[in-house]
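Q: My collaborator sent me two sequences in one message, no labels, and asked for predicted structures for both. Can we handle them in order? The first one she listed is below.
A: Yes, handling them in the order given. First sequence, followed by its structure tokens:
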Amino acid sequence: MDIRQLQALVGIDDFGNFSTTAQALGTVQSNISTRIQRLEEELGVVLVNRDSGRVTSIGRQVVDRARRILFELESAVSDAHAFNQSVQGVVAIGMIGTVGRWLVPKLFEAQRLRYPFVSLQIVEGTNSTLEPALISSKIDLAVVSIPLASPELSSLDLFAEDLRLVLHRDHPLASRREGVRFREFADLDLLLPLTATPLRREIDAAAAAEGTTLHASLELDGVRTLASLAFDLRIPAILPATALSTHLKDQFVALPIVGTPLRRVGLASRRFGFPSEPTRVLSELLQEIVITEGSSVEGVHTATT
């Protein structure tokens, strides 16, 4: 089995055809075809459907393992470089959108100052997209809501944040600045996170503890989009503190919800393998920034607050 064969297979999975994969790997299409054919002959299975250009079901399993192999090789190169000179390499970090709004600028500034030879890539998404990307080594770390759904991943707590009921100032409940209970707005049609996401599970559990079931007029897998719709359409929503925008100052209020849990945000990584040196230093830098800067973000609670 040749590394170039694995690269070709992963390339086809990423780009969907032989010609684009050849361009990305700096070779010609016939070379890609030959590499895939030899890999299939060695394994005794069909990895790529020649009609569609997509990997087969068994090809998908091989791709997942190939990504891990290639990741470990890249990490070995990064570690070797770091031993002789400044840390260098590429680190891709997944980030749920609302957290990224305050965390990414601080991370980028600190990374450029301390590790100027590290190239930082930010991939915005939700738990449902970032966890699979992390498992398949498409990204190196992920800042996500916890608990995680994937047993292949581990996580450590970064911070927790308040949940608020966001209402337009004209709403009858808007004057309740001291906070509201779930039963007081159980009859409202709300914008809520998608069922079975970590945040939604915590919200539903807290409401159930009061004997209440919430009604969703719309569910979304993505808090940032949820927040945008809440502000644009003026529909009540339950949002974490980092999703609250400057729109709140003039048009909206964010009421504390009595008895609601804090939304937990953590740093996820793969359980298998060893992270590269650039990944390790960026992980430490992320944790440091949260500890030193997180307390200044309204509604965010770190270990020091």
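Q: And the one she listed second?
A: Here it is, processed independently of the first:
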Amino acid sequence: MLQEFKGWWELAGLPKFVTTLVPFLLGAVVAWTEKHIDVLALIISLAALFLMTAFCFVLNACSVYSDLRRRGVSFRSRGHGLADLFSTAASGRFDALVSGKISVERATAGAYLCALLSIPLGLILQFWLRTGRLTLVLGAFGLLLMFSYSRGPKLSYHGLGEVALAGGVGWLTVFSGYYLQAHEVSLKPTLVALPLMIEAFKLKLLRELPDVHLDGLINRRTLAVRLGREKIIRACMPLTLVTWASFLLLPPLGVRPFSLVVLAAPGYFTLRSLVSIRRGLWRTEEGLERVCRDAFTGMILIPLALIGVFALNAIKPL
């Protein structure tokens, strides 16, 4: 049982949870700058989001692994990766399944259990803590989006996974974090989330590049498969320019310009990623891993930096 639990957490990929939890906190902080913050509602909603994130990541890993097995791909555990798959995205991703720590069936059952456990938390938020009429609607939409990514409509198999991820990670998390605190619909969290949405979309495109061959084997028609590596790489610079142009929407929202200095942190890693691309490092496995690592760091630092921006703006000038 303990071994299965450890295997399940390996599949969940705990460090990746920052991609949903941090943007959700950003939305809550934006609401806090306007009103007080409900700490209990924040804790319970973070717990619900944690369970939903685990549901998404484990279900997706099991789906891709099962499809690869059906295509006859043989796996051999090598401790922290797969001997047959020389992919920065896939390396180590399925090791818990390959090594026999947990079966696909048990892992999938654990994923659905997480989704079920999140439902009573949603009920508590809406009917006891009165976080708003859309609370359960937002939660249900999130679960549906997570399920549809790799099951049912299989959005990630039809060139829609990138948009789904950008919408879910980049917008829905920020909007929900705001709504559950402010209890109202506003355009503000959407404008704040716009840079993160674009960067999440760009990062997803980059992270698909190592898996082009594997995705092709299981007919997973991602945008990287459809467009090819060269076009994806050429799209990175324009997407980055749009991301940083969208930060210009912050001052009209009442953000004091001096606070934007904290955006230098994500800007540094984003620039490093672009420089590596410009030098052609993406053409090698090691180089592409570096490009993706810097792009990911830049992306996740955006909501962290924006939390700092809004926290600074919450401090009243003397």
